Amino acid sequence: MMATKLVMASDLFLDLQLYRIPDWALDKLRVSFPFLEIVEVNTPRTAGEPLPEAAEVYWGNRVTPEIIAGLPNLRWLHFGSVGIDKALVPEVKERGIVVTNSAGTVAPAMAASAIAFIAGLARGFHHAWSDRRSGTFGRPSFDAHFETLGDLDGQSVLIVGYGDVGSRLGKGCRALGMHVSGIRRGSATPDGDVEEFFELARLAEAVAGKDFVVDLLPLTSQTRGVFDAAVIGRMERSAYFVNVGRGETVDQEALVSALREGRIAGAGLDVYERFPLPPDSPLLELDNVILTPHVAGLSRSYWPRAYELVHANIERYMANEPLVNTRDLSREY
Q1: pLDDT, tens digit, for every residue of 206-264?
Q2: Angle at alpha carbon of residue 119, lines to 115 and 122, rounded to 5°
Q3: Which of 98, 134, 250, 273 could form a disulfide with 227 if both were Cys (CB 3.0 to 4.6 A apart)?
Q4: Pair 63, 42: CB distance under 8 Å
Q5: How much is the pTM?
Q6: pLDDT in tens, 212-223
Q7: Numbered ranges of CATH 3.40.50.720 in the chain
Q8: Tell me: domain 107-291, CATH 3.40.50.720, correct?
C-alpha cells in the first residue's frame, strides 16, 4: 500500500500515564513515518469536535460504536489493552475492519500482579493491613490468623482464561510448587506447567477443591457474569478468588455475599463491575479482601513494548502484510 498520508485517530492523550502516549514515542513514530498524522479524539479536550473522517486507523481503548460509524475510512482498530469487547459490534465485522490488541505488552505485569495477590492472600497480608487500620498491629494480633496462613508449595490453582497472561502465571505458580489447572478456549493438552485443562462449560466443576481461582477472562457474551452464585458456591471455604481479568465476568453481589459470610476465605481484586468503586462499596470495608484500583497491567515497561508493536504493525499495514495480534472476531471466548 502506497500513501502520502496516513491518519490515525487516538484517544491515548488522557492524564493517566497508561492512557497517554509518551512524547518520546510520538516523536519516534513521526520520524519513522513522516506521512503519519495522529489526531486526538474522544478525550475531554476534544469533546464536541468533529471526527477525522480520513482516519484509517484508531489506536486506543475508548472507541464506541458512534466513533466507528463516524470514521467511514476506518480499516484497522488497535486496542492499547488486551480486551477487545468494544469491537464486538456488527459494524466492525460487516465493514471488515481489522482488529488488533496489545497482548504481550501487559502480560508480564498482569502475571506478576496475580502472583502478588496469591502470595499476599496466602501469607495473610490482608490481616496485617486490617490490624494496622484497627490499631492492633503486631505479632499477638496476627497470631490469631495462624491457622489461615500457608505456603504455596503443594497448593492448587485454577487459571481461568489460559492465554498469554495465563501461561506466564502458570509457569510462575509451577515454579512455586503449585499444582496448576487451566481453562482455555478449545481443546488443550496438559504440559509441563498445567496438569489439567477444562472447558469453560465445566467451570463449576473446575473450581471445586482448588485453593486459588484466578480469573483472567476477557469480556464476551459467553463470559459475562460466568462467575455467578452457583460457581462461587462450589469453591472451598478455604479458597481464595483473584480477578485481574474483567470485573463484569463476576456477579459481584454474589462474591460479596460469599466473602461476608465466610463461604470463601478471601479475594484479591483489581477489576470490578463498576469502576471507580463507589464510596459505599462493601468491598472497601471487607477485611478479607486485597484491592488494587485497576492497575494490574501498569508497568514502566508498557510503553516501550506498546511502541514496538505499533511501529511494527504500521510497517506491516503500509506493506499490506498481516498485522501482529490480529483477533478473529468470529471466535468470542
Answers
A1: 999 999 999 999 998 899 999 999 999 999 999 999 999 999 999 999 999 999 999 99
A2: 140
A3: 250
A4: yes
A5: 0.92
A6: 999 999 998 899
A7: 6-104+300-318, 107-291
A8: yes
